[in-house]
Amino acid sequence: MTWTGVADVVAAACILLGALLALIAAIGVVRMPDLLSRMHAATKPQVLGTVLVMAGVGLRLRDLSVVGVLVLIVLLQMATSIVASHMVGRASFRAGQVRHDLLVIDELSSEPAQDEPRGAP
Question: For this UniProt entry, which segments traverse the membrane (predicted)?
């Protein structure tokens, strides 16, 4: 088997694994109970899935200009999804759409903490 055949097999595996992670992210958005859990389920596997799909496409096409564009796509995806999920989480907290019974630590509330454990003793 030549190196192009090996690269094609690795590219197919990356694309399939990335698509599986995107499917897991979609299922997590539907199945999670509250907004913050849905955002976590949507951003974490979705970004890794995008990285894997772009790596698979880069391995399959093997063109330096295409790989440069794919790296740019991955970097922008990583930067924007983190900032967007943070802003949506803060806006939903301020709008009162967060279930406070599911929060372990509430750092955004104006109420004083009730002796919550804050890490290792």
Answer: 6-30, 67-89
35-61 and 3-31 helices cross at what angle (nearest 10)?
A: 170
pLDDT score recorded for residue 16: 97
Q: In angstroms, rounded to a whole number, what is the distance separating the alpha carbons of residues 86 and 80? A: 10
pLDDT, position 121? 55
- Domain membership flag for residue 40: yes
Query: Which pLDDT score, from 0 to 100, does residue 56 have?
Result: 97
Task: Write the DSSP symbol of residue 62.
Answer: -
CA distance 75 to 51: 9
Q: Which residue has the tokens 């790989």?
A: 67
The answer to whether 76 and 82 have CB atoms below 8 angstroms apart is no
Q: Specify the pTM.
A: 0.77
Domain presence at residue 42: yes
Task: Identify the domain containing residue 68 by its residue range.
Answer: 3-99
| Per-residue pLDDT at 69 exceeds 90 | yes
